Each structure stands twice: as C-alpha cells, then as structure tokens.
Amino acid sequence: xxxxxxxxxxxxxxxxxxxxxxxxxxxxxxxxxxxxxxxxxxxxxxxxxxxxxxxxxxxxxxxxxxxxxxxxxxxxxxxxxxxxxxxxxxxxxxxxxxxxxxxxxxxxxxxxxxxxxxxxxxxxxxxxxxxxxxxxxxxxxxxxxxxxxxxxxxxxxxxxxxxxxxxxxxxxxxxxxxxxxxxxxxxxxxxxxxxxxxxxxxxxxxxxxxxxxxxxxxxxxxxxxxxxxxxxxxxxxxxxxxxxxxxxxxxxxxxxxxxxxxxxxxxxxxxxxxxxxxxxxxxxxxxxxxxxxxxxxxxxxxxxxxx
Length: 307
Ligand SMILES: *[C@@H]1O[C@H](CO)[C@@H](O)[C@H](O)[C@H]1NC(C)=O
Ligand SMILES: *[C@@H]1O[C@H](CO)[C@@H](O)[C@H](O)[C@H]1NC(C)=O
Ligand SMILES: *[C@@H]1O[C@H](CO)[C@@H](O)[C@H](O)[C@H]1NC(C)=O
Ligand SMILES: *[C@@H]1O[C@H](CO)[C@@H](O)[C@H](O)[C@H]1NC(C)=O
Ligand SMILES: *[C@@H]1O[C@H](CO)[C@@H](O)[C@H](O)[C@H]1NC(C)=O
Ligand SMILES: *[C@@H]1O[C@H](CO)[C@@H](O)[C@H](O)[C@H]1NC(C)=O
Ligand SMILES: [Zn+2]
Hints:
Blueprint: H1 2-23, H2 28-39, H3 44-53, H4 68-72, H5 98-101, H6 113-129, H7 139-153, E1 171-174, E2 177-180, H8 181-197, H9 202-214, H10 221-225, H11 242-257, E3 266-267, H12 269-298
Parallel strand pairs: 1-3
Antiparallel strand pairs: 1-2
Helix pairs in contact: 2-7, 2-9, 2-12, 6-7, 6-12, 7-12, 8-12
The structure holds 2-acetamido-2-deoxy-beta-D-glucopyranose (NAG) (6 copies) and zinc ion.
Zinc ion binds next to α4 and α7.
C-alpha cells in the first residue's frame, strides 16, 4: 500500500516535471546563449539603452533575464503570453505564411511568436525614435519579451506542425530517457553537448560559438544580419526580418527535426551528431539577429529601410 502510494507520487512528480519542462522553450541554456552572444555585438548606444531598461534583478546582464517570459507564462495574469512563444503551421506543408499561421487557437490574428516580435520591436522603436511621445508600454517588459522571442523563433520546432504541437506530442527516447521531440530540441541536444564536449560548462560552449562567429561563420554573418525587403508578408517588415527567421525554422524542422523521429523512436548518436550543427548555428544566428535588431532600434544613425 505504502509503496504503491509512493510510486504514484513519484509518477506524479515525474509527469509534472515533464509537463513543466515540455512547456519551456529553448531551455534556459539556449536563451542564455542567444542573449550572451547578442551582448557581444551591441553597439555603444545599445549597451546604454539596454542597461537603462533592464530590471534591477538583472544586475546589468540581459542574458540573466532572457528566460523571464518562460518563468511567468503559467501565472494566470500572464497566460495571454503563452501563444506568443511559437507559431504552428499546417502539417507537412513545410512553409510559413504570416497571415495564414500567425494566430492563437481562438484565431486571434497576430498572436504568435512573429507577431509578438513585431509588436515589441515597434514598441521599443517608437519610444526610441520619439522620446517625447508618451509611452504607454512597459519597455522593460518589451525588451525582455523581444530578446526571448527572437531566441524562440530560431528553435526550429517553435515553427512546427499544428497537429503535433511542434513536436510536443511526439514521444521519443533521447538515448534512454523518455521525452518528446520538442523537448529534445529545446533542451536535450544542448544538455548532451555540454556533457559530451564542454565538461558541462555553458560558458565554454558559448566561447566556442563565439570563436566560430569570428572564424568559420564570419563570411555568413552579414547575410544573417541583413534585412530582406523581399519578405512582404501582411504586416510591414522593413524593420524586422522575423518572417525569414520563421521560414528558416520550419524548413529546418522538416529537414532535420522531424526526419527519422517518428513517435516511439529512440534517438541516439546518429541523430545527435547530425543535428548538433543545426542547433549551434541557430543559437549563433539568434544572437546575431537579436543584436542587429536592438542595434537598429537604439542606434541614432538614420534608419534606412532594409539597412
Ligand atoms: C503587444 O504588447 C502589448 C503589451 O505587452 C500586449 O498587451 C499585446 O497583447 C501585444 N500583442 C501582441 C500581438 O504580441
Ligand atoms: C515593468 O515591468 C517589470 C516586469 O514585469 C515590472 O517589474 C515593473 O514594475 C514594470 N514597471 C512599471 C512602471 O510598471
Ligand atoms: C571539469 O569541471 C570540473 C568542475 O566542474 C573541474 O574540476 C575539472 O577540472 C574540469 N575538467 C577539465 C578537463 O577541464
Ligand atoms: C564550429 O565550426 C566547425 C566547422 O564548421 C564545426 O565543426 C563545429 O562544430 C563548430 N562548433 C561550434 C561550437 O559551433
Ligand atoms: C525575393 O526572394 C526570392 C527567393 O527568396 C528571389 O528569388 C527573388 O528574386 C527576390 N525578389 C526580390 C525583388 O528581391
Ligand atoms: C511600415 O513601417 C513604416 C515605418 O515604421 C511606416 O512608415 C509605414 O507606414 C508602414 N507601412 C505599412 C503599410 O504599414
Ligand atoms: Zn519561450
């Protein structure tokens, strides 16, 4: 009797832990990494503006509050933010269209990760362009949301299929652990990387990514940063190239995340080693693009469309 109760209790705790974990987006490590990389590309004005906006608890470090939107989204007064972490696309279509896809389950338009990035970019931008205008928004929150959601939109399965909730309902094993595909991409690949290559040290992994940014990827970085005027989805995207980021994510989801990961699969070395470069690149791109976005917002240089 006692032991079966105990087992039930353990089962509950495990289910609860998995629920909580499954709901996170790029785990804490992923968001920290994106923001830490971004910080090293901030222009002087951005450094100052970010310092001014950060809450006391951040102690001047943006990366330390980049998981804040995940921490609050289950509280009832913040529940409206939970659809803003991802966007669902039609099953197997492997493309993303703002007008078709960016809504919550009640079909409220713009309530998805790209809509949110656009929203918070505009809030920060209008405050920064016209400092005399009365600002109705909490710009501290805007900064923390924007930094988090730019990370999220780079996680391929945050732009996944509607039918499986971005991999959340695809149960798989990650080596011996039972989990779901979404969680593999949020957390497990990064965790295994830290264990296998970096002596469990996140700063070491970030250093390695930064080294690649100044060497291996240095030729690609300008193209990651640049706005493409091309992406005219319904809202105006001259300041944010977020529509491109989402399109890349669903492409990668189809090509790498979903491939060979049907329900019940055990994912091991083959999957890990072939997907790791994708995760590394997306973390780095997220960082570069967050920095580019914040630099565009806070720089006093004239803002040429698409520059
Ligand atoms: C835009 O930001 C405001 C302030 O946080 C919020 O009330 C609104 O729901 C947001 N809209 C979207 C689409 O993110
Ligand atoms: C802005 O948002 C932060 C985080 O939610 C909060 O701590 C702070 O009190 C807010 N500021 C104002 C002026 O409401
Ligand atoms: C790995 O990290 C531990 C502390 O976490 C340290 O004692 C050990 O020296 C490190 N090993 C290497 C090879 O750096
Ligand atoms: C750095 O780039 C090399 C070559 O593209 C790649 O093999 C390696 O995995 C990358 N490391 C990181 C941390 O991104
Ligand atoms: C828009 O992008 C597509 C491919 O992404 C390209 O083929 C086309 O030439 C671009 N159009 C313009 C006007 O840049
Ligand atoms: C696009 O944004 C620019 C700059 O914020 C604004 O001047 C323009 O009116 C917007 N266009 C549309 C169609 O919303
Ligand atoms: Zn998130």
